[in-house]
Amino acid sequence: MDRPKVRAPTRAGEEEIGGASLDAAKERILACSPLAELAAPSRRALLDLGGVERLARRQRLVQQGAPPRHVVLLGAGRVKVERVTEGRVLPLGHRGPGDLVGESALAGGPNATENATVLDEGEALVVPLAGLERLLAVDAGLRAALAAAIVARKLETEARLGSLLLLTVEARLLEFLRAAARRWGQPHAAGQLVSAPFTHADIALLIGSTRETVTLLLGKLKRAGLISFDRRRVVIRDAAHLAARAASI
Q1: Does domain 5-163 have CATH number 2.60.120.10?
Q2: What's the predicted TM-score (pTM) here?
């Protein structure tokens, strides 16, 4: 298997976006993020510091064990975040539009504690870590907004850990599908399409199961009329019954 390209985003994408269009791209990315409500001075300082970058599939944004250089705010695309410990991979989740990547660098450690790899190409606001740290030292509003985003991520991780410990595999799959629909859902003729192309192996890693079990359970949900598939993407056909089924397990 080819290894992901280990390289930081470059400013090449900005050469294709100029003036007002570049400002609009930055604003669009910030508007769908946890930092959307920043006051004007903090907002302007952050946008001036960051640059809009194109993200290529399989690009490594963060390399575990290497010094972190930037924090990434995703505007489009999908990024897989994972940690390798003693040769074993711990999936930390998939990030999408509006999500931060590499925020653990703000804790001040010398090296990154996880890998972050682009799964679906997109774009991002990339903020140099050194400049962001200087800005945080003097901007209380930005500090508060980033702290709230990091705490929200921590609570989400704790909820996922709780489901791994307390729920059955089917219940974890149902919770994953409902969360994926909220996060990646798009209108579809048959219901709601989970636009991110999660493979059965991806889902298995994220819910602590096996690909074979996930395949069997998805087939069961399909036969029950709760989901279908469109070009290997999941379509939630009956969100209400899916929620009821999750609550009954």
Answers
A1: yes
A2: 0.85
Per DSSP (E only), the strands in the chain are 5-6, 51-55, 59-62, 70-85, 88-95, 100-101, 115-128, 185-188, 191-194, 227-230, 233-236
8-state DSSP, 72: E
- Left, alpha or beta for 209 (phi > 0: left; psi -120 to 50: alpha)? beta
Give the pLDDT confidence score for residue 19 in this predicted structure: 57
Closest CA to 205 of 185, 176, 233: 176
Give the whole-angstrom CA distance, residue 125 versus residue 72: 6
Dihedral sign, Cα of residue 167, residue 173, residue 179, residue 183:
positive
Q: Where are the domains of the chain?
A: 5-163, 168-248
Q: For residue 20, what pLDDT is reported? A: 62
Kindly report the CATH number that applies to the domain delimited by 168-248: 1.10.10.10
CA dihedral 200, 201, 202, 206 (to 10 degrees): 100
Tell me what percent of the residues of the chain surpass a pLDDT of 70.
92
| CA-based end-to-end distance of the chain | 39
Tens of pLDDT, residues 96-140:
999 999 999 999 999 999 999 999 999 999 999 999 999 999 999
Give dist(CA 43, CA 200) in Å, integer.
39
Rounded CA separation 144/220 (Å)? 45
For position 166, what pLDDT does the model report?
93
Least confident of 114-128, 152-166, 167-181, 190-204: 152-166
| Rounded Cα gap, residues 126 and 131, in angstroms | 11
Tokens of 226: 């709760």
